[in-house]
Design goal:
Helix content: 25-40%
Distance between the termini: 51 Å
Number of strands: 11
Structural class: alpha/beta
Strand order of the largest sheet: 5-4-3-6-7-11-10
Length: 307
């Protein structure tokens, strides 16, 4: 199959696309072109490998310290051929964002006590590995992504194919026959990173409804996605993306609650991209109003208690 050239615009670069040759004959060729033609790929890990992450690969994965950098380069470039996402190309998967949240310790305690956790849009499953490294059992973990190749690469990334017991579910969240239906009413903790902003407002409402369907009362969502100081919806080739600020993200969950008869409390904050661990060069091409949006969203136990 050949991929025909599409016009380039600023928002296209956010998705890791670029100004391409007229015809590209394979996903491998596409990946190789995008290594040089998109700002969403940084060839060298540079300062992005922080001490906490190095320690994770040394202690949890058993990678010798002097092999970690080469190991990460090898795995990342394998993954790039399956999906040219900024979270892969810019090494975002290395950054311990969620584990730095104040809410993380509560989520960790709940999972240790037997709560179920779903990493939605999991990529390599790196957030679940941090929970596992901090002592959480993996038997009650679930992970879902539309790309099973990335989850499979995660086993090699973390060298835990035998010990990681999480159930991976390949699924399109918008498919009504999705196997995510098996999780109806079963999930206590959701980890959702770099996911919501991939869709427009109406699609985000659909995502929220699916989350409600899978959640138990008292369920907690923790995660982050790309936001804006002034919320805006962008149309990017064949995709519509809504970038939230705090106010619109709260409204999203009010609307989801109204449509599902549930009540959710939202804590959210806009942060500079450096707080995620990115270098300035990693996002200097993006909108000047771009920020990270960190969030914790909790379903109230008493659905009749109001917002």
């Amino acid at each position: 199959m050949s991929l025909q050239r599409q016009p380039k615009d600023a928002e296209t670069l956010i998705l890791g696309q670029a100004d391409l040759p007229e015809v590209i004959n394979s996903s491998f060729e596409l990946a190789e072109v995008l290594k040089t033609d998109t700002p969403s790929y940084k060839a060298d890990i540079g300062p992005r490998l922080k001490p906490a992450t190095r320690d994770l690969y040394r202690t949890y994965s058993g990678v010798p310290d002097d092999e970690i950098v080469n190991h990460l380069h090898s795995i990342r470039d394998r993954a790039w051929s399956f999906g040219q996402y900024p979270c892969v190309g810019l090494w975002v998967f290395l950054h311990p964002v969620v584990s730095n949240f104040a809410e993380y310790e509560n989520a960790l305690s709940r999972v240790k006590a037997g709560a179920s956790v779903l990493d939605l849009g999991c990529c390599f499953g790196h957030e679940l590995r941090r929970l596992a490294a901090d002592g959480a059992p993996t038997e009650n973990m679930y992970a879902s992504d539309i790309h099973p190749e990335l989850w499979d690469i995660g086993y090699d990334l973390f060298r835990d194919r035998q010990s990681m017991k999480a159930r991976f579910i390949q699924a399109d969240i918008f498919d009504p026959a999705s196997p995510l239906g098996d999780l109806k009413g079963k999930i206590d903790i959701f980890i959702i990173c770099q996911f919501f902003h991939l869709f427009g407002w109406e699609k985000q409402i659909e995502v929220g409804k699916k989350i409600v369907e899978m959640s138990r009362p008292g369920a907690q969502l923790i995660g982050y996605h790309t936001g804006r100081m002034e919320a805006e919806e962008s149309h990017v080739q064949f995709r519509t993306m809504f970038f939230h600020n705090v106010e619109t993200f709260k409204k999203l969950w009010r609307d989801i609650g109204i449509e599902t008869g549930t009540t959710w409390t939202v804590d959210a904050v806009l942060v500079e991209m450096e707080e995620w661990g990115l270098e300035k060069e990693d996002y200097e091409w993006a909108s000047k109003t771009q920020r990270g949006l960190n969030f914790s969203v909790t379903r109230q136990l008493d659905e009749n208690s109001g917002a």
